[in-house]
Amino acid sequence: MYTKEEILALQEQTRSFLKEGKQLPATPEELEALRNVLRFHEHRYYVQDDPLLADTEYDLLYKMLEAVEKDQPDWVTKDSPTQRVGKSLNGNFVTVQHLVPMLSLDNSYNSDDLKDFDRKVLQLSKRDKITYCVEPKFDGGSISLIYENDLLVRGATRGNGVEGDEITTNVRQIRSVPLSAAFGRYGIQQIEIRGEVLINKNNFKKYNEELTEKGLAPLANPRNAASGTLRIKDPAEVRRRNLEAFVYHISDYTLLPGQALPEALQTHEGSLKLLWELGFRSPVKELKTFDRIEEVIDHCLEFETERDQLPYEIDGMVIKVNTIDVQEQLGMTSHHPRWAIAFKFKARQATSKLLEVKFQVGRTGSITPVAKIEPVFIGGVTVSSISLFNEEVIREKNLMIGDTVLVERAGDVIPYIVKSLEALRTGAETPILFPKDCPICSSPLFKEEGEAVWRCINIECPAQVVERMIHFVSKDALDIRGFGEANVRKFYELGWLKDIPGIYKLDFEKLGTLEGFGKKSIDNLQQAIEKSKEQPLHRILFGLGIRFVGETTAKVLANKVGHLLELKNFSQEELQDLEDIGPKVAGSIVHFFSTSSNIEMIKELEALGIQLTNTHKQLAAAGALAGQTFLFTGTLPTLKRSEAEAMAEAQGGKILGGVSAKLNYLVVGEDAGSKLEKAKKINTVKIISEAEFLKMVE
Length: 698
Description:
This protein has 698 residues and is an alpha+beta fold. Strands 2-11-10-3-9 form a 5-stranded mixed β-sheet. Strands 14-13-12-16-17 form a 5-stranded antiparallel β-sheet. It has a 4-stranded antiparallel β-sheet with strand order 5-4-7-8. The radius of gyration is 29 Å and the shape is globular. 36% of the residues lie in helices and 20% in strands. α1 (4-18) crosses α2, α2 (28-47) runs antiparallel to α3 and α17 (537-543) packs across α18 (551-558). The chain folds into 5 domains: 4-75, Helix Hairpins, CATH 1.10.287; 106-344, D-amino Acid Aminotransferase, Chain A, domain 1 (2-Layer Sandwich), CATH 3.30.470; 349-433 and 440-446, CATH 2.40.50.140; 462-614, DNA polymerase, domain 1 (Orthogonal Bundle), CATH 1.10.150; 621-697, Rossmann fold (3-Layer(aba) Sandwich), CATH 3.40.50.10190.
């Protein structure tokens, strides 16, 4: 174990090695310091399950070590991290030996790395052309499965690559892992298979919601959740987390006496198809083969742009030589096979330092703490600000000013702090003090029972006034092009804009006195403001910023009235009878339309020319899809989901939030997931393709 002083010293060395422009170690002593840093982080990751680095940062250190040892072979030591397969084991499970070592993959981060890999493969294999298989690099927990005489007899974690933790009971809880498979049909007596255990993004979200409802801290991300679940001692809890497994490699097999080698096992592509036919989840649908490395590179770069459409987390692509004979010819190093390489996508995690927390006031008065961190490059962008959501998040994550934090930028591109690395605290950190008064207008803050958010309840608070106007002109509301956040703030500070109706009373002659506002830009803004007067009623409803009323609820409300002000006649009970409107939402709507200042504002907007009657309601009622309900799932071939939903609504169709007996049509694309499975169990739901949907629209 490492002492507190040793941890802080090693982390300081880590940051030094990771500094931009840092020179490679120039002496054996400096190189040994780098090895010690890597050994420390391996121990944190594999033994303590509490890493202090992002994976990409570890990879950079490892590459640095490899580069120096390649140039200075005399400096290589027998206990260097490059000279063994893996790392130490967690001592809580029985240790078992893999039939074949589970090696790591060499990593590449750009097209030049892949071209270099291709050059080496062609050179070592003495061939003019190689067929490559390319498949997703799943981001979960690695496992090894052994089947004997068609039965699953053992499951194990990767461990140190030579030995792993025996987790057969937990593996048996994973429904996508067959307990038996007809390998004997292909003459196979024993087989060892490699795979990755994952948690579907939707299942991960649902599980975290359950934890939150119980007052427990949510899991950090699907990858850590999947890997950690494999080591849980309670099989019932493992089953409850709905793990899934993809198998991607046959590492070893023994044939029955007198049995010839099956043709399927002569290529990687054939082996994955064999596993698929036997009931395993192998990536046959995602697998592509190419004869040129340029085609491989194009596919990897294209797939990176689509990674967020998948129901699982992936962090790259794996490129493998397809022919098994060539794989055996190329062989392996002590660390990785020479016939495969991982193309890693842009990093989504990094460590940084929490410098301060600022408190922002939203349009409904909500106080949001925002962490200011040392700028760090993640997922292709530099991140310096991160929302902490509310006071409870700060407490749950035990964050302090000065902490080293692990930052992640996930599929929704919104960065968040995964956790504080408490082991790196020096004692100089200070608590984050949540304000008791509004940071803008100094009014006392208020928190409703059962809510996590503190609010400023002064409706005239300048911050709320500005945020309401920013929301009103935004893309999803009135969509006034050229009237973005910066202009709202500028016009407000100049005293030219005080409230939402003021948007339609703007003095365009004054704009000409501002730098950057020429005649063309002023004309464009004026036209955009005029055009917004004809926006459909549901956009206006959403733009008013009624608390809890999102885009979907705004559409439900708009479809029930001929004029916006009719909503003031609805009781809370009548509103709750509408689709997906509960007591909290209904109460907020009643409160908004019973406030005289809001009614006066709506009347003023109408006097200024805003269309408040529901002309779209009459058009939709006569549409081809009138009275029908729809839900879209998966990746559609040609349409974005928002485009398809808009087409359905324009023809009178109604979009539901989930699969139920009220649903008429489920329109499915690729990777439809759990919604498709649920719809299959309801006889009244019709499952159709995008092409069939488009025919209905026509």
